[in-house]
Amino acid sequence: MEVVMAFVVATLFSCALYMMMRRSIVKLVIGLILLSNAANLLIFVVSGLTRGAPPLIIEGVDPSPFVADPLPQALILTAIVISFGVLAFAVVLIRRAYEVVKTDDLDQMKDTDT
After folding, report:
1. Residue 59 within any structural domain of the chain
2. Residue 52, Cα to own-chain centre: how many angstroms?
3. CA 6 to the chain's CA centroid
4. In a domain, 23, yes or no
5. DSSP of 70-83
6. Distance CA 103, CA 33 (A)
7. What pLDDT is recorded for position 12?
8. Hey, how many other C-beta atoms are within 10 angstroms of the C-beta on 36?
9. Which residues form the domain of 79?
10. Please, which of 37, 39, 42, 55 could form a disulfide with 70 given CB 3.0 to 4.6 Å?
11. What angle do CA 11, 88, 43 make, to 5 degrees?
12. Torsion on CA atoms 41, 47, 49, 54, rounded to nearest 10
């Protein structure tokens, strides 16, 4: 399962980099979203996949094979909330920039002084 997840993370990172190299600012933001999702999934995969195990320690049982680590889960949850806030802010900025410049091409945005 870890090998499949590694390929999924690599695919997300490569798609994110491809989208971020496009000229459209909307595609840039989509690339940033994919990049944050890939980073979250990378943290999740590196922490180890424990399927169906709660983050609890049972008395008298060796906790290593039966316990999910709650720290990476908390970090990913925090990163999801932060990335949602950044996404909302970026959407507002894109909308305002499109109203002023009337284009979403990054090269044409550099040429305007409005």
Report:
1. no
2. 24
3. 15
4. yes
5. HHHHHHHHHHHHHH
6. 21
7. 95
8. 19
9. 2-51+64-111
10. 55
11. 35
12. -110
Q: How many domains does the chain contain in total?
A: 1
Q: Encoding tokens for residue 21?
A: 């190299």
If phi > 0 it is left, if psi is from -120 to 50 it is alpha, else beta; for residue 48 that is: left
> CA-CA distance, 88 to 62, in Å (whole number)?
44
Residue 108 CA to residue 87 CA, distance in Å, equals 23
Q: How would DSSP label each residue in 22-74? A: SSBHHHHHHHHHHHHHHHHHHHHHHT---TT--S---TTS--TTT---HHHHH
Check which CATH number belongs to the domain holding 101 and give it: 1.10.287.3510
pTM: 0.76
Q: What is the pLDDT along the chain (114 residues), one digit of tens a residue?
A: 788 989 999 999 999 999 999 888 889 899 999 999 999 999 988 887 666 666 666 677 666 666 667 788 889 999 999 999 999 999 998 898 888 888 888 777 776 555
